[in-house]
Write a structure and sequence with these properties.
2 domains; alpha/beta; five-stranded parallel beta sheet; Rossmann fold; globular; binds 2-keto-D-gluconic acid; 35% helix; single chain
Amino acid sequence: MSQTDIFLASRVPPFLMASLQANFALHLRDNNPAPEALSRVRAIVGGGEAKIDQALMDQMPALEMISICGVGYDGVDVAAAKARGIPVTHTPDVLNDDVADLAIALMLAIGRQLPQSDQFVRANRWVEGAFPLTRKVSGAKLGIVGIGRIGQAIAKRAAAFGMDISYNARSAKADLPFTFVADVVELAEKVDFLVAITPGGAGTRHLINARVLQALGPQGYLINVARGSVVDEAALIEALQNHTIAGAALDVYQDEPRVPEALRALPNVVLTPHMASGTAETRKAMSDLALANLQAHLAGSPLLTPVPECRT
Ligand code: 8YV
């Protein structure tokens, strides 16, 4: 029996790659598959950052489904997929703990200056004097932009640090014991640490802009574990250079994996390479779920985790 043709739109974790290679006829975007091969493709698989637009789908007349190995799917034109009756799946929940862990780690890293102090010891500068004092995180005011599953996991951890927690979302969540602030500028004004964990896409593009950074102020820190598009990166670089804000800890960027030289040169940032879900345990769970969605579709069974727009 001939193998099902799958198009791989972006890099995926090694666990998923191994399963795809073993069980399917795999066509890698990087290899520019011929039109004839694309015409046989029944499913697209990709990571959370994969760009899957209508032009790409149009090259695949036999396309039946899209399985994203990631919770975010802002690179997928879901409306175009739906118009063709193509369901899109993603991998929510299994990464909540890891992303929340990294958000807390970044908050501690920038507040307590961990990479900077590590460098200080390595460069033997300790012999010349003490490391400058840092910012206490426990008990500080935290603002969370986006209070979905991951936002709530961050809040739960921050509560254990005795933080005073407020959040911004489209509407107040009555069941949450945190303060709702309808305006992001107002939220930034009242907190010490502002954490972005809202979905990417047109609706949240540059939600964190120059005005928000101005409101966060010279004692405030920005942490971004959402999408690079959520923050106006040029405005952020300017705010960091001019000390309009105290610092930033970022896991995501506008044009990954390219990080602007101006950002990399700054001393008041902590930069990680989009690794919030990047533990072996979680990437395995994400891979299993992405594969299970693909297999469910091919077996004619209900999909496990379709994106909200594709739930019936
Ligand atoms: C990774 C992510 O980018 O889940 C997401 O939305 O951003 C990440 O977990 C990626 O999808 C891993 O393959």
